[in-house]
Design brief:
The protein is α+β, with helices and mostly antiparallel strands. It has eight helices and 13 strands.
């Protein structure tokens, strides 16, 4: 089978005949800046595809998604699709994979390495009490809704830029910075908690009221915030307490093992779930 596989660019009409994966997402990539979509065919049938694109916010890597039809796996089709994308890229390729998954094994087999790790990040309601006991009280914590207009959005942008700067920096364009600011419009300001040190914001637990479970992004407002560890513990304690009072069944945290304050704290909390790796494939010889 392998020697008869052919590769070509994706055509919008292909989405109607692909019977695996999520072909509808390919249509949304067509025409996007930097988009490259290749399909693998065998005897006229599409048996795999790879989509690659540049994100608006993070552009130091090119993201990739590879899918092979279940009945066509084991013939190096996925590997050759990656090679097709690599040959057209001047950036490393990046994707996400759950620890122990086939996707992780595939990327590692191609020489991929983790450049960031998301630790277990789910907190079920049955562990809210235990978490509050570990974190202690939450004095000098206010709701983001009490801040002056625009201040929560400013704090979000500051947090997002510094927490990514060392391993996946925000692209140096107004378009990228505007995309980060736009995310703040989705914040649940009433339940977003801000810890004060000497009357100034020191740490924030940003809350997004996502379907299924509120998502919490928590860190200090800057890398070198004085008393940052203690301030971070206070805002997380406050968010968990508020979630308990309003009957939330589960909190989903969003953070990284590499985050200087949240990472070490998350390792101590009774969080559940699998680790998620952000994986990078280096450039091929031509790309280098």
């Amino acid at each position: 089978m392998v020697e008869h596989i052919q590769f070509r660019d994706f055509q919008p009409s292909d989405a109607k005949v692909i019977t695996f994966g999520e072909p509808g997402e390919l249509l949304s990539r067509v025409g996007a800046p930097g988009a490259v979509i290749r399909v693998a065919t065998w005897q006229g049938r599409i048996v795999g595809y790879a989509a690659s694109w540049l994100a608006v916010v993070h552009r130091s890597r090119r993201f990739i998604d590879v899918v092979v039809a279940p009945d066509s796996r084991g013939h190096r089709i996925g590997t050759r699709l990656v090679e097709e994308i690599r040959a057209r890229s001047h950036r490393p390729l990046a994707t996400k994979a759950v620890e122990g998954s086939d996707a992780e094994a595939f990327i590692l087999s191609l020489g991929g390495k983790a450049y960031a790790t998301c630790p277990p990040l789910e907190l079920p309601r049955r562990l809210f009490g235990r978490t509050r006991e570990m974190l202690g009280g939450h004095d000098d914590v206010i709701s983001a809704a009490t801040l002056s207009p625009g201040e929560p959005e400013h704090l979000w942008s500051r947090y997002y830029e510094w927490v990514h700067e060392q391993w996946s920096p925000v692209d140096d364009t107004e378009e990228a910075r505007a995309a980060v600011r736009s995310e703040a419009a989705e914040l649940d300001l009433e339940h977003t908690s801000v810890a004060l040190v000497d009357g100034q914001p020191a740490a924030v637990a940003f809350v997004f009221d996502d379907e299924g479970a509120p998502t919490v992004c928590a860190e200090t407002v800057a890398r070198d915030t004085p008393d940052g560890d203690e301030a971070l513990a206070r805002v997380i304690s406050d968010v968990v307490s508020a979630a308990w009072r309003r009957g939330v069944r589960r909190l989903a945290f969003d953070g990284h093992q590499e985050d200087p304050h949240f990472g070490p704290l998350a390792a101590k909390l009774p969080l559940e779930g699998a680790r998620l790796f952000l994986l990078e494939l280096p450039l091929n010889a031509e790309g280098l």
